[in-house]
Each structure stands twice: as C-alpha cells, then as structure tokens.
Amino acid sequence: MAVPKKKKSRSKRDSRRANHDRLTLRSLVKCSRCGAVRLPHRACRECGFYRDRIVVATEPTGA
Questions:
Q1: How many angstroms separate the most distant Cα atoms in the chain?
Q2: Domain span holding position 47
Q3: Phi-psi category of 52—alpha, beta or left, where left has phi over 0 and alpha has psi -120 to 50?
Q4: What is the enclosing helix (H) or strand (E) of 60?
Q5: How far apart are CA 4 and CA 61, in angstroms?
Q6: How do residues 4-63 score in pLDDT, each as one tens digit?
C-alpha cells in the first residue's frame, strides 16, 4: 500500500479539497425570437420558443 513520505500541511490538504466547491459559470444564449437570455437546448422561459416552434404555452405579459 502506498504511504506518503512527508505530511501534507493543512493548507495543501484544504486547497485540494476545495476544488469540489468551485462554482462554474453556466453558458447562456440569446433566444432567436425574443432576445431573452436562456440556457442552451431548452425552451425560452419568456416566449416558449424552441427550434423554430412554440413548445410551451406562456401567458401574455402586459396590462
């Protein structure tokens, strides 16, 4: 079994473990119909548009 020759310091140990908590930025794209920002490969939350058709019925906004 492998055994370390030298003791790792607390900072080395903690910085190695901290990589699991790192946040990643999500990629966002603009909707081709309304221009709102949305996640790729998902229907737009504003207008319900995805791949040249409306797939989700949304309520009209406005008074």
A1: 72
A2: 26-63
A3: left
A4: none
A5: 63
A6: 899 999 999 999 888 877 777 789 999 988 999 999 999 998 888 888 777 777 776 655
